[in-house]
Amino acid sequence: MNGQEGETADLTRKFAAKVAEEIDLPYMFWDERLSSKAVESFLIKEVDLSRNKRKKVLDSGAANYILQGALDAMSRI
Questions:
Q1: How many Å apart are CA 6 and CA 67, to the nearest integer?
Q2: What SS3 string covers the chain?
Q3: Counting CB atoms within 10 angstroms of each CB, which of 3, 15, 38, 40 has the fewest?
């Protein structure tokens, strides 16, 4: 969280570079570290969902959160 990329980000960038050599499509990187926390906070404060029910929807909610953030960012480009 100090602004430096870790090992996983480095590996991801290297993988994307290899894919880009083979497939000519645009791509972007998106920081998803806080997505689960943001969705869980929303489910607690706004929806008042029980812990058991949160477990069932947290991953898909985080995926939606990430996708929406990326789409919003792309619309401003």
A1: 22
A2: CCCCCCHHHHHHHHHHHHHHHHCCCCCCCCCCCCHHHHHHHHHHHCCCCCHHHHHHHHHHHHHHHHHHHHHHHHHCC
A3: 3
Residue 59, number of CB atoms within 10 A of its CB: 12
What pLDDT shows up at residue 61? Answer: 96
CA distances from 74 to 10, 17, 71, 77 (A): 23, 20, 5, 5
Angle at 47 (CA atoms; ends 46, 50), nearest 5 degrees: 125
Tokens 């869980």 correspond to 40
- Please report, in tens digits, the pLDDT of each residue of the chain (77 residues total): 888 899 999 999 999 999 999 999 999 999 999 999 999 999 999 999 999 999 999 999 999 999 999 999 999 98
